[in-house]
Amino acid sequence: MRHSPARIVSLPRAAASTAAVFAAALAATLAVAGPAAAAATITVVGEAKRTAPPDMAVLTTGVVSNAKTADDALAANSKAVSEVIAALKAAGIAPNDISTSSFSIQPQQSYPQPPSRETPKLIGFEVRNSVRITVRDLAKLGGLLDKVVQSGANQASGLSFALADTDRLEGEARAASVKDAIEQAKGVAAAAGLRLTRIMSIQPDGQSGGPIMPAPMMMKADSARMAVPVEAGEIEVRARTVLVYEAEPQ
After folding, report:
1. Which of 3, 95, 209, 212 would you label with 53, given CA atoms 20 to 30 Å apart?
2. What is the pLDDT of residues 199-222, one digit of tens each?
């Protein structure tokens, strides 16, 4: 018995495309319905903070000088700043803990009152020179502030406190944030009737900060000599950890 040769049936392009889409949808349905279906995930954010008293301070202070000429203003300012730096070194501040933070020379002008149309007149020059000081012994800070004023400083732009080494505090906060995230994940899983199987990802993120004590823009020596009262407060370090768990029904 002779068999007729096999026939090749060509589907229209639209029909072939529809068949491909159907096949892909069927495969996706089988994958979801099969044993390899994707497990549930639980994402939690753990947070923690740790505090400690600061052990160092950073002070920015300096001198503002005014004179009719730039040379006179600069000479007066340089002399005053040199005396401030000498007083700092005499108080036990190491040279590498003293650095210039800013310096400027600005003309000072007198502006006529309206409706006068006269041009502004140059009346002098202002020189500003600021130094940044790192104080590593906080017990000396109050007395040092007083000495700075006595030596000629008449400007202060800020005083901040810090820790020389924050690694230990950051490590403690980070570990506590992970524990917080784990406890949260356990609570969420129990409430949802799930069992935690494994950690899929963990993303730690730390941030530290401390108090900043604003200082007045201008400082003036007082006849009554006493150490400036200073409260250092505490340094606070915060940490966050994002934890993603895989979970399955109990």
Report:
1. 95
2. 999 998 755 444 434 333 334 444
